[in-house]
Write a structure and sequence with these properties.
single chain, about 160 residues, 5 strands, about 20% strand, globular, Transpos_IS110, Transposase, Transp_IS110-like_N, transposase activity, DNA binding
Amino acid sequence: MKQVITIGLDLAKHVFQVHGADAEGSPVFNRKLRRSEVLRFFEKLPACLVGMEACGSAHYWAREIAALGHEVRLIPPAYVKPFVKRGKTDSADAEAISEAVTRKTMRFVPIKTAEQQAAAMVLKTPRSSSAAANAIGQRVARASGRIGDHRHRRPGKG
C-alpha cells in the first residue's frame, strides 16, 4: 500500500468520509468511518496532513487529531467547493478537501482552543440586544402610527 500523505475528512453527524492520497495526489483509499472509529483510525496512521471544512465541530476534531501528531488545517467551505469534481456527495467532498488542502495559495481558518470556542458560543445569541431593541422600537412606532401611516402625507410627496 502506498504511503498516505494527505487526508480529506468530510465531517457529518454519524458517518464521516475519509479520502487518503499519496504524494502525487493519487487516491489511496476512500472510506466511511463511524464517529467512534475516527480517533482509532488516525492513531494507526503515520503523521500526515489532514484537511477539514471549517465548522463548529471541526475545531474539536482538529484538536483531537492534531494531538495524535497529524498536521490539521481547516478550510472555509466556500474554498473547497471549486474542487468538487462531481455531484455533492460525502465521498466527493472528502476528495475535494484532500486536494484543496495541498494548494499553496489556500487560506486556512485558525483552529480554536476549547476556551475560544466556548467564549464564541457565549457571544452568539439569536438576536443581539441592539437588534432586539431596534425591532421593539419599530413595532412601537408602527403601533403609534409613526411608521406606515401615509394619511398625513401631502399628495405627490414620497
